[in-house]
Amino acid sequence: MQNSKFLSAIFAAGVTFVLACLMLGVKLNTEGTTLQVEGASTEQWTWIGLGIAVVFLSQLFSAQIDAFFSGLPKPQLAKVLPEASVMARLKPWLLAALIVGMLVWPFMVSRGSVDLATLTLIYIMLGLGLNIVVGLAGLLDLGFVAFYAVGAYTYALLSMYFGLSFWICLPLAAALAALFGFILGFPVLRLRGDYLAIVTLGFGEIIRILLNNWTAVTGGPNGISGIAKPTLFGLEFTRRAKEEGAMTFHEFFGISYSSSYKVIFLYLIAVVLVIFVIYLINRLMRMPIGRAWEALREDEIACRSLGLNRTAIKLSAFTIGASTAGFAGSFFAARQGFISPESFIFIESAIILAIVVLGGMGSQIGVILAAIVMTILPELAREFSEYRMLLFGLLMVIMMRWRPEGLVPMKRPHLELKQ
Amino acid sequence: MTETFLYLIQQLINGLTIGSTYALIAIGYTMVYGIIGMINFAHGEIYMIGSYITFIVIAGLLGMGMVSLPIILIIALIVAVIIASTYGWTVERVAYRPLRGTNRLIPLISAIGMSIFLQNYVVLAQGSRDVALPPQISGGWTFGDPSVFEVSFSYMQALIWVVTFVAMTALTLFISRSRMGRACRACSEDLGMTNLLGIDTNRTIALTFIIGAALAAVAGLLLGLYYGVVNPFVGFIAGLKAFTAAVLGGIGSIPGAVLGGLILGVTEALTSAYFPSEYKDVVSFGLLVLILLFRPSGLLGKPEVEKV
What we know:
The structure holds two protein chains of two kinds.
Chain A: H1 2-23, E1 26-31, E2 34-39, H2 42-60, H3 62-71, H4 77-80, H5 84-104, H6 111-136, H7 144-161, H8 166-188, H9 193-213, H10 215-218, E3 224-225, H11 249-253, H12 260-286, H13 288-298, H14 300-305, H15 310-336, E4 338-339, H16 346-359, H17 364-380, H18 388-402
Antiparallel strand pairs in A: 1-2, 3-4
Chain B: H1 3-36, H2 43-63, H3 69-96, H4 105-126, E1 131-132, E2 140-143, E3 151-154, H5 155-177, H6 179-189, H7 191-196, H8 201-227, E4 229-230, H9 234-249, H10 254-274, H11 280-294
Antiparallel strand pairs in B: 1-4, 2-3
């Protein structure tokens, strides 16, 4: 037994060496027109050796390590929180406090953090939208960013060519994104789940390629700049009104101009949008359609034998998810004032998916927490930014291995009869 | 022989060249899908690593003063196959095997994570910029009247055709004749039953990952030499194309993957010949959607019956 363990440890160390020797130990370097290789520095080889040693030891003592980790007490969330009946009474107050806090908070902190919070809220919106598709309906959508792009470009183009305001474009963007979701979903959703992943991925790429190459309308890789900012009932947040006779926000209220009003205003719009989306999804989840989504995720064949129309159910989840992305997209365009196809690459889809997976598929609180973590952590760890995507991928693998249900697993709203 | 006809012939040659490398990558997807029913998202990354290893070995051997090109290429091929197979095996062992038997979405998400990880691992190890290798194999045959249109068929393209053909033949013989190949076929028929009959299914699954990775490394070598450029992001789009090829031909079927790869390669070459070349990806994904619509099981695939 001990002997075989030793052999497998040697084997694992050997595999690690093969993996590392050429990829990490040697670096390609272009000198003029010839390609050269140079060996890594001694320091890098020390690191590689260290890695091999770690793999060797962890294989050799895997039994002990497993025993140590299973001996650790698992965090019990249920024990920390007060009992269900107390929670039910406290909940409205907590919610009210949270909303008031979110509304008051931006006036007390710096502009940068409000801006970051707005970005976080965009990701929360996206995460919630994808959560309907992936978490509730169990459809793996890898091209979610396409609908985000549709929303963003809808607002940018309508505002540029027709001068429509943000508030008119917001529902239009959501509707158009939903239409795209419908058109894509209609043929594809009849198929088995895995194909959906690849078709949506292809669709995301198609949208990006079209945006990149349809230069006459979308501006191609240069994107669209100078997108109009949202207004408050026609009051602009600029120093001077664009048109003659129009009032700006600070003139109307007779206060001095400050650029942070605009940032706070955008933040407040985002808060309202997020609350709207959360409310909507919460209602939908309690409706028959929401229950059908989850039933379909759990067992498709059972659903069909009970007479549920799976295409219609999947399509509704897909379309509603897409419209949420459209919302987020048009708000994103309004906040940035500039969009280009660069903002809508596959990695963006992967980040949104990681938010949903990390938070716990189907769980709204989980998704919100994960979105906050995912946007704030990179800001805090700026010096590690080159490792960001590496850790991202690693995190997805590790989460699937050790906690596939996510940080805050989903709980169905349910009532229990006490005997 | 008119000019349009010769032009078409040229596009067909180019398309079949690219298509045969897609086929090599597609086999990795189709074999894994045939046995465990999951999309190995990290497969395109294995191809990219194969390309990098090839470049490293060739540049290293040239730097050491070796001149015989065939020996260099053979050494590069062997090293790339060994290292890429090790990557394929490790990915399966670390990211997929512990998740076997869970909900279908879970290994898929783990695979996406692995793909992002490998891509950025190469970015960190080798930098994110293009690495260019000067052409090693130049020259070729030309046909047709030089005053009208000259069709060229380069030695590099010939090499790709020959190597692909040899690899496919070897794979077919291995799958149909050898004991392990029979175990592979048995596993794709019924994994549980094969296990009951005393075949180590874990080992067989690992073997399919190794074979897939080895073929991806061969494709990495060929395409790396053909294009002469590699960067850490080539794996993503190549993987996507190869998966499209696998679905096109009928996922789970090895001849299907080859057929799908060739069709996709020709379609792309024709699209970029007669339309702006940016739209070739659009056309190939459009083709995927159409195939899935009208023939979800692919050209050579068996229709799947869902059982409770």
